[in-house]
Design goal:
Two copies of one chain form a homodimer. In chain A, 19% of the residues lie in helices and 29% in strands. With 214 residues, the first copy, chain A, is of the alpha/beta class. Chain A has a single domain, classed as Dihydrofolate Reductase, subunit A (3-Layer(aba) Sandwich), CATH 3.40.430.10. The longest helix of chain A has 12 residues. The interface between A and B is medium-sized, with 21 and 20 residues. Chains A, B: InterPro entries: DHFR-like_dom_sf, RibDG_C, Riboflavin_Biosynth_HTPR.
């Protein structure tokens, strides 16, 4: 059984950025407005961070509903874990994701500054300083036959795309411009030589781009 | 936790029919061409009846991928089980679905002619002569907290819609006319007074209609 590497529910601006400049503890998306990016997902019944009942069950919900489906591990860049740069100064701080992170699997954080693994609820964070192919090998082993989610940010997804390791991508394009930051692409069409590509406008206003390997 | 009653991947013609007239053992869709109805689903990687590897992983695949997600039981009309009418004459014949039916849960077949339950692999068929609300109660209990799929055909879905029991529907409209048979609707808009409604044209040529309760 193939273990896919999948990008899911990753949102970029109409000018191709996953986050703005000047990321900080208070501003995980930097100068970009997280609400303007992620509103489409937060409105769905299946959004993993939803705390109250209700939510939509239309097209956007099929995308968020698939978030954990057959996923056994996640790979993320350091900036999705936290805003710090360089050596860690505070091992007490355990990332942006709270006591009950939405991953519920092993998570591999890519960083040049490794630190000891730790668990929060049923999510375990591992810190690895390896090239993408090696990180993927570790994540696949941890996933025990299930697929691996490539969680972002844009820089991390680019690394895996450039190494030819990504099997499927779901990227939502929001109708907001950021102007500068971490870029996924200049245009979604850049991937068309290597991927099939469905373009699906959603009633919510975002456009879903669904790619799978040719 | 709410147990939803869900219609999934149900396909109708552009004139609103789920199957044509003259259903028989050889022609489960009657005078309608099953290929012209179900091609969109059969082309996806996640189609439950797929036997070879490959298949698309775009929009249509999100719909078929969701088929078994959190589903604990199915309800179907007798004509989805087999073409016979009236009393059963042959208990040896165990339905259209082969030795390895794609349901993998208890299945409740609605019929005025009950017969003993039997299992094929991990699917168990039960035969019930009850009104929709009672059948749903039995299916919910069998589903053990998970959701219940309402499998069709059109007549059965209409019964549950008319009783106000359906929570979500995914109906794919194929660009084919049947002219006569079992009708789901005259137009998808008929449900708009009771349901939110996303209309999503697929690159494959079908249009997905996604409904959830207001």
């Amino acid at each position: 059984m193939t273990q896919l590497l999948k990008v899911q529910n990753f949102t970029v601006s109409s000018d191709g950025f996953g986050a703005g400049e000047n990321q900080s503890l208070e501003r995980p998306f930097g100068d970009a407005d997280p609400g303007a990016m992620m509103f489409w997902a937060g409105a769905t019944a299946s959004w993993p961070n939803r705390t109250d009942p209700g939510g939509s069950r239309g097209l956007d919900d099929y995308l968020t509903r698939d978030f954990a489906h057959n996923i056994g591990a996640e790979i993320m860049g350091r900036n999705k874990f936290g805003p710090q740069r360089g050596p860690w100064h505070d091992h007490e701080w355990q990332g942006w994701w709270g006591d009950e992170p939405p991953f519920h699997t092993p998570v591999f954080v890519m960083t040049h500054h490794v630190r000891p693994s730790f668990a929060l609820s049923d999510t375990t964070f591992h810190f690895v300083d390896d090239e993408p192919a090696v990180v993927l090998e570790k994540a696949r082993e941890a996933a025990q036959g299930r697929d691996v989610r490539l969680g972002g940010g844009a820089t991390t997804i680019r690394q895996f795309l450039d190494a030819g390791l990504v099997d499927t991508l779901h990227v939502a394009v929001a109708q907001v411009q950021i102007g500068a930051g971490t870029r996924l692409w200049n245009s979604p069409d850049e991937l068309d030589d290597r991927f099939h590509h469905d373009i699906v406008p959603s009633p919510s206003g975002v456009t879903h781009h669904l790619f799978w390997r040719r």
